[in-house]
UniProtKB/TrEMBL annotation:
PANTHER family, per database record: CELL DIVISION PROTEIN FTSA-RELATED (PTHR32432), ETHANOLAMINE UTILIZATION PROTEIN EUTJ (PTHR32432:SF3)
Pfam assignment, any one: PilM_2
InterPro entries membership: ATPase_NBD (IPR043129), EutJ (IPR013366), FtsA/MreB (IPR050696), PilM (IPR005883)
Transmembrane segments: none
Gene3D superfamilies cross-referenced by the UniProt entry: 3.30.420.40
Name of this protein: Ethanolamine utilization protein EutJ family protein
């Protein structure tokens, strides 16, 4: 089975955990702004297309189901990410370029708000990509099924010949798992979210009903898309980062399912990589 661990994804995970990459001051920086329901993630690439920094901040209710619902708070949250990133990487707004992404199925006007956040922070928004296309870029995927379990929704996309030929998005995600966990443990939402992240190897059995609902959504969508037959199913997104989720998904979907490495970073890296490819590079 394909590992999906590209050199760029591996390095992105390293700089996320260990801090900005050491080296010369970068020139043309590409920034990938990922406005998630639970987390905002910002990834920076150097002019060769390799990650040199990655940071994350809580979304604090500024984004719901992948859609910006509090514009000013979204700007504030991304400004915190940018400030943290800038401590290790000199970022010149006149040279650096940003990009954003949006979930499948929303209007172009709603998607444009993501680009507006980038521009409000002083950067040209050089790209606005559909999230599954960005994820496929980060994974180096030419053909496959991407299941993106975010905070507020689960998106499913079929990729053929490097193009998304089918996509859907349903409002069940990591937030719903946290609510179930909070009820089961008798704690508030924030404590349950913290517990879920710290003990990702513990709660798949408890969260099985929510995971089965997500898997049923994916299965039903795939049954209506014959072009997906025989394609690998790969899980991405912060909500997917629970040990054992693949087995639950496989039991419902009826085909092999694998977890992408660095699942939280796949989409933001893909945003930045898509921008870099369009601006400066090639695949």
């Amino acid at each position: 089975m394909t590992s999906w661990l590209t050199p760029e994804l591996s390095l992105c995970g390293q700089v996320f955990r260990e801090g900005t990459a050491e080296g010369e001051t970068p020139g043309n920086i590409c920034l990938g702004f990922d406005l998630g329901t639970t987390n905002m993630v910002l990834v920076a690439l150097d002019e060769e297309g390799f990650p040199i920094g990655a940071v994350m901040e809580p979304s604090k209710a500024s984004v719901r189901d992948g859609v910006v619902v509090d514009y000013l708070e979204a700007i504030r949250g991304m400004k915190v990410c940018l400030d943290r990133l800038s401590r290790g990487i000199p970022i010149d707004e006149s040279i650096a370029v940003g990009a954003a992404a949006y979930p499948p199925g929303i209007s172009s006007k709603t998607a444009k708000v993501c680009a507006n956040v980038v521009e409000a922070l002083g950067f040209e928004c050089g790209g606005l990509y559909e999230e599954p296309s960005a994820a496929a870029e980060a994974l180096g995927m030419a053909d496959g099924v991407i299941v993106d379990i975010g905070g507020g929704s689960t998106g499913m996309s079929v990729v053929r010949d490097e193009k998304v030929i089918f996509s859907s998005d349903e409002p069940t995600g990591g937030t719903h798992m946290t609510l179930v966990l909070a009820g089961a443990l008798g704690v508030d939402f924030d404590r349950a979210e913290e517990e879920k992240r710290k003990n990702r190897n513990r709660y798949a059995p408890l969260l099985k009903p929510v995971l089965e609902k997500m898997a049923t959504i994916v299965r039903d969508e795939l049954e209506g898309c014959p072009e997906s037959d025989g394609l690998p199913v790969v899980l991405v997104g912060g909500g997917a980062d629970i040990v054992g989720v693949e087995g639950v998904m496989e039991s419902i979907i009826g085909r092999p399912v694998s977890m992408a490495p660095e699942s939280l970073l796949v989409t933001p890296l893909g945003i930045a990589r898509s921008l870099w490819r369009d601006r400066y590079g090639s695949k």
